[in-house]
Amino acid sequence: MHAYRTHTCAQLSKENVGEGVRLSGWVHRKRDHGGVLFVDLRDHYGITQIVADEDSPALALLDGLKLESVITIDGEVKARDAAAVNPNLPTGEIEVFARSVTVQSHAEELPLIVNSAEDYPEETRLKYRFVDLRRERVHNNIMLRNRVITSLRRRMIDQGFSEFQTPILGASSPEGARDYLVPSRLHPGRFYALPQAPQMFKQLLMVAGFDRYFQIAPCFRDEDLRADRSPEFYQLDFEMSFVTQEDVFQAIEPVLAGVFAEFANGKAVTPAGEFPRIPYAETMLKYGTDKPDLRNPLVISDVTHHFTTSGFGIFEKIVGGGGVIRAIPAPNTHEKSRKFFDDMNDWAKREGFAGLGYVTRKGGEFGGPIAKNHGTEGMEALYAELGLGENDGLFFAAGKERDAAKLAGAARTRVGETLELIEQDCFKFCWIVDFPMFEYDEEAKKVDFSHNPFSMPQGEMEALENTDPLEIKAWQYDIVCNGYELSSGAIRNHKPEIMYKAFEIAGYSKEDVDENFSGMIEAFKLGAPPHGGSAPGIDRIVMLLADEPNIREVIAFPLNQKAQDLMMGAPSAVTPNQLRDVHIRTIEQRTA
């Protein structure tokens, strides 16, 4: 017999009744029924009920054990009485009568209870993550992550992609988020950077002649954290040669639609080949964000032209100053009190905006200051254009275009949630396309890249030389699902002369490009194919499939919101000798 087990804690059934078996696992739960002790024994695979009575020499030892102690049980499989069968367990028809028990490890007092769904502070959960991971929900999330990655890998290989690994220690780049830096011992004063993404290396693989690459790539960004963001994350990184934007879409849609359908537990998924393509300008107008949640049926409209001349002076003044007015419908709100609308206005102010205007309508009668000043005729014309009914309310976001879009997008989400309009039990994908290549940086007072500087501009050199930079679009695209950006991608700029010109428009000299991106620009001078790709975020994919609101719930050992590992004590102080080895001297921070 094996030293620790003949079966796992999910294997035994009525077919094993009468057999002598050996099981090992954690003491999950104990129930004392007056001389008869029931123990739920748990391992990675499941739970088996162990029973010991006064005839069992194991009774006294089992009775004295604390929860989460690790034990090995030798015993006999018995059928449960019909009334005691547990249909919710694969092993629910049997139990194991304990003949003997060996304690492999005693557990002390637990910082959190494993067999309970009780919520604990995140600090406790992350400090004792190895215990938290034993809990069913978290354990299942990590196993889901494993299955998702396995499925993604299989699907990519089936699509003809080859898996390669790119370096972890690389060079720092002036673009993007802050790098995590690693000092070099052999090269004093020099630093490696952990990869924010394998961007340049995967492009160089295309230049090297490999046609379809992918990897499950670790990435690191030293940036402020949110519920859907982690400083260390993984992405399904891929790149393809000799492809158009449409080729990239056709390659990755079956992978994402397939893996979501596989693990969606019956939820509807946008089929491959049917992901809507929404231009950036359109999504910013209709949804107020480049990460639209298409489960929300509300659509924002530009109604600026209705207020060029209006009795409502505030809007007329905003429009006269070059601002815009965006309208967000609030359908069937005739039974809502004025408090609903006032609360939305208060919410907007708490979010840092000047406020959220509104119009009420009940049985065709308009209400509120905007309607009163704009006039019934003007409001009826506005409602007719928007296709709104006699019981629909309307919110307004006014101001500079970017600010109005941001407020309108946030208000659309809040109205949709408050009125319970968000479609449930589905995953709705879309592509956001035609991103602007450049934008005007108000702070720096210059044109700069709006997104990825290595994207190919639509129109290539001709566009760069003959078009207003702020009008140029890039072959750049995002995948969005249920309001979350899963990935950014692009058809790459593989021509040195176009790259030099694009960077020149953004204020970089040829020397800047040669110095900062020498590896890539030199490679492109030696024969580079047209290529493109993307990198869907694995953590966010699993977060959506697990229906978790926080990305840390699907990462085995996450950092907290301050980028600390409470379990291992990272980041930690190091010894003077270690600093000396890498030629570093630290500066103590002054305390107030």
Q: How would you characterize the overall build of this protein?
A:
With 592 residues, the protein is α+β, with helices and mostly antiparallel strands. The protein is built from 18 helices and 24 strands. The strands form six sheets. Strands 6-9-10-24-23-22-19-12 form an eight-stranded mixed beta sheet, with helices on both faces. A five-stranded mixed β-barrel has the order 1-2-3-5-4. Helix 4 crosses helix 17, helix 5 packs parallel to helix 16 and helix 15 crosses helix 16 (518-524). It is globular and about 90 Å long. The model has no long low-confidence stretch (mean pLDDT 95).
In short:
With 592 residues, the protein is an alpha+beta fold.
Terminal CA distance: 66 Å
Low-confidence stretches: none
* Tally of helical segments: 18
Largest sheet: 8 strands, mixed
Mean pLDDT: 95
Give me the secondary-structure category. Answer: alpha+beta
From the spread of the alpha carbons, the general shape counts as globular
Spatial extent as radius of gyration: 30 Å
Please bin the fraction of helical residues: 25-40%
